[in-house]
Amino acid sequence: MAANQIVVFLARVINQSDKSRPRIISVILSVLASAFGVQSQQNYQRDFSEKSPLPYIITGIIFTVLLVGGLMGLVLFITSN
Fold it and tell me: Transmembrane stretches, by residue range (predicted)?
């Protein structure tokens, strides 16, 4: 019985730690949806209820750099011909 209780306890601890941190795919999808203006109110509330905005800020900066770099590359490609 004790081994079973330990397994149940560890499963609860793992589940709680997963809930305290947003998953990376969730952060990426939230940043993309916000960038294109299609973020739902439910997801907006979920994002702002997180303890730390740092994952969203870092992902937003990376997205912005990739977007600007991609647009610059596209313009250079089109104007080089």
Answer: 24-42, 54-78
